[in-house]
From TrEMBL:
The organism of origin for this protein: Ambrosia artemisiifolia
Protein name, as recorded: Delta(14)-sterol reductase
A GO MF label: Delta14-sterol reductase activity
UniProt keyword annotations, A-Z: Membrane, Transmembrane, Transmembrane helix
Keyword Transcription in annotation: no
Regions crossing the membrane: 20-40, 52-75, 87-108, 149-167, 179-202, 223-247, 253-272
Main location group: membrane
């Protein structure tokens, strides 16, 4: 038991290989985000009347990355199990990176003298509060908008972890129907509105990447440890827990359970997609028709006449059900996203109350 615990702790120690993997991933995202074509989307109007513009080329960047990895694996240049072989190393490495980035953001924010809405420092004097929530709204590094960049990195990182876990299952001859279902559900599950809220579609996220430019994270949240950690650590590493579980525990579901999971997932997605489009259209144009009629609003800010008031929050629980059910267990580990999601729902509900 002592040896197992020691081995577990040792597996968290970062290695240079994990550092190279992480920095190589970020380097690819910087280059691909700068050179690949994509739709340029105008962000929300800021307090000083300015607005940022985002190049939404995440989908082509993701597809190119997966293609390069497959070609590299075919040529024996890269290992598709590199991530799954170093899962805990990468977790601790990414956590350390998040802390370092937070410290740099704090120092840069405190030294900033700019008056622009994006970079104007918001310092409360409480160092914990300032580091957690951030000081600047839209900090950038070498022309890269860090907030948008970290969200993209987290979503792609989640997919890469899942694909590496899948490759590991195939390599170990441990591929189950539950693993296949989990991969399919996660391929179409995404995080939206906030770094803690699981909704629908990784691929969908990048196909509709411009929708992210109208979310609360982008238009209102300052960039601090909360968002950096949420994007780079929380999303990819905690939302992939079910995959890690299935890698060590082969689960075969009955046909009825498979059909039920797929049905719940499909209904949940259809409701979400329609509702999320309504919300995005409303944020871009408050006079946009909803159900063919002028929108009903709550407090002038919250859309109340959509499919469901803030469907991203309530609908997420239905979408999480098939994603968790493929593990065939009620183990708290596999229910982590449901538990964390419930905590977040109680947190965000107070924001809606204030808006109303």
């Amino acid at each position: 038991m002592q040896m197992d615990f020691t081995s577990l702790l040792t597996s968290f120690i970062p290695s240079w290989n994990s550092v190279y993997l992480l920095l190589g991933f970020f380097g690819y995202l910087v280059i691909s985000g700068s050179v690949l074509p994509g739709k340029v989307v105008a962000g929300a109007n800021l307090a000083d009347g300015t607005r940022l513009y985002y190049c939404c080329n995440g989908l082509i960047s993701l597809l190119l990355l997966v293609g390069l990895l497959l070609v590299g694996a075919w040529m024996d240049l890269v290992s598709l199990t590199a991530i799954s072989d170093r899962g805990l190393e990468l977790l601790s490495t990414t956590l350390f990176f998040s802390v370092i980035v937070t410290l740099l953001l704090y120092v840069a924010g405190c030294k900033s003298k700019t008056k622009s809405a994006s970079l104007k420092p918001h310092i409360t004097g409480n160092i914990i509060d300032d580091m957690w929530f951030g000081i600047q709204l839209n900090p950038n590094f070498l022309g890269v908008d860090l907030k948008f960049f970290f969200v993209r990195a987290g979503m792609m990182g989640w997919l890469l972890i899942n694909l590496s876990v899948l490759a590991k299952a195939i390599q170990d001859a441990n591929l189950s129907q539950s693993m296949i279902l989990y991969q399919l559900f996660c391929l179409v599950i995404r995080c939206h509105h906030h770094c803690f809220d699981v909704i629908i579609y990784i691929m969908d996220y990048f196909f509709y990447e411009e929708y992210m430019t109208s979310t609360w994270d982008i238009i209102a949240e300052r960039l601090g440890f909360m968002l950096v950690f949420g994007d780079l650590v929380w999303i990819p590493f905690t939302f992939s827990i079910q995959g890690w579980w299935l890698l060590s525990n082969k689960v075969e579901l009955p046909t009825a359970a498979i059909v039920a999971n797929c049905f719940v997932f499909l209904i949940g997605y259809l409701v979400f997609r329609g509702a999320n489009k309504q919300k995005h259209d409303f944020k871009k144009n408050p006079k946009a028709l909803i159900w063919g009629q002028p929108p009903k609003v709550i407090g002038g800010k919250l859309l109340g006449s959509c499919i469901k008031r803030e469907p991203n929050l309530g609908n997420s629980k239905a979408l999480q059900l098939p994603w968790r059910s493929v593990t065939g267990t009620i183990l708290q580990l596999t229910l982590w996203n449901q538990l964390s999601g419930s905590i977040f729902l109680s947190y965000i509900s107070s924001d809606f109350a204030d808006m109303a």
